[in-house]
Amino acid sequence: MDDYLKQTPYSDPGDLDTSSLPRAPGELACLVRNLIIHRGEGERFGHSVPEARLHHDAESRYVTEILRILRERGDAPLTERRAPKERFVGTCRDFSLLLCSLLRATGRPARLRCGFATYFVDGFHEDHWVTEYRTPEGRWRLADAQVHHGYDMPFDPMDVPRDRFLVAGKAWRACREGRVDPGDFGLSGVGRLRGLWFVWGNVVRDLAAVNGVELLPWDGWGPQFLGRVPLTEHERAAADAAGSRDDLARPYEDPRLAVPAEITSYTTYLGDRRVILAAR
């Protein structure tokens, strides 16, 4: 568990003074919810997100970048709720990464999980990221900071039921066993961004996150990450092996799922970009 107390290059908050931060996971999630606005929820807050922020904020790969942007937009302490115009404009991954960072910084093991949520669109498994944290009793819980405040959820966002959020490996296994339709997994608003290839990409990203490489949701390193070529039997077999494991430690013994030092970020607004990742 010590590994999940350590910050990664992505979650490291740098010189952030954590002495005034709350220690309770729910309070930290509320803090995160008050610092970030999802780039698709401006209307919910009656706020028109500036185009530049819509395009650039969520490309911030590291918590230090998120905190830098927050400092530029307001000098209030991070513990104070911010107006939408002073928030970081991100995605579910950013809510989850910042919560993970603050949990680790305040002494609680935590990690990111990539998978699919069933609580946004009825009958569909929406691409999503959450934070997984360890309780003092040793149980791992899923926490969704994005929906912690302002969404009417039929469950505690600090203990998301495992059947309401499927980690990517379990989603892959269900698809491969024919228990679910792979076409019901992906982005509900974009018909072409769904299917078994999409689930496979999330398996790779979830494995990476559990092992300290918290990628952006659109990171990849080949046309298979975009569904432009069929998955090979080797790629399917590697995901089969990963999906059958509950303990995802040390997956990089299998080079078929290893994250290379240089990847492609298939960014939504800015086009494809080659990125050299920070060394662990």
List keywords for this structure.
single chain; 280 residues; five-stranded mixed β-sheet; 7 helices; globular
Per-chain topology:
Blueprint: H1 25-33, E1 36-38, H2 51-56, H3 63-73, E2 88-90, H4 92-105, E3 110-117, E4 125-134, E5 140-143, E6 165-167, H5 168-176, E7 185-186, H6 196-210, E8 219-220, H7 233-243, E9 262-267, E10 271-276
Parallel strand pairs: 1-2, 4-7
Antiparallel strand pairs: 3-4, 3-6, 4-5, 8-9, 9-10
Helix pairs in contact: 1-4, 5-6, 5-7, 6-7
Organism: Streptomyces caelestis
Pfam families: Transglut_core
Domain Transglutaminase-like: 89-145
Strand content: 15-25%
What ranges have pLDDT less than 50 throughout 5 or more consecutive residues?
Answer: none
What does the largest sheet look like?
A: 5 strands, mixed
Following the backbone from N to C, one meets helices and strands in this order, namely HEHHEHEEEEHEHEHEE
Query: How many H/I helical runs?
Result: 7
- Helicity level: 25-40%
Average pLDDT taken over every residue: 94
Number of strands: 10
Total tally of structural domains: 1
Mass-distribution shape: globular
**Overall SS class:** alpha+beta
Radius of gyration: 18 Å
How far is it from the N-terminal to the C-terminal residue, by CA? Answer: 18 Å
Domain Transglutaminase-like: 89-145
Protein name: Transglutaminase-like domain-containing protein
Organism: Streptomyces caelestis
Region (Disordered): 1-21
Give a structural overview.
By secondary structure, the protein is α+β, with helices and mostly antiparallel strands. It has one domain. Helix content is 27%, strand content 17%. It has seven helices and ten strands. It has helices spanning 25-33, 51-56, 63-73, 92-105, 168-176, 196-210, 233-243; strands at residues 36-38, 88-90, 110-117, 125-134, 140-143, 165-167, 185-186, 219-220, 262-267, 271-276. The strands form three sheets. Strands 3, 4, 5, 6 and 7 form a five-stranded mixed β-sheet that branches. Strand 4 and strand 5 form a beta hairpin. Helix 1 (25-33) crosses helix 4 and helix 5 runs antiparallel to helix 6 (196-210). It is globular, with a radius of gyration of 18 Å. The two termini are 18 Å apart. Pfam families: Transglut_core (PF01841). Residues 89-145 form the Transglutaminase-like domain. InterPro entries: Papain-like_cys_pep_sf (IPR038765), Transglutaminase-like (IPR002931). Residues 1-21 are annotated as: Disordered. This is Transglutaminase-like domain-containing protein.
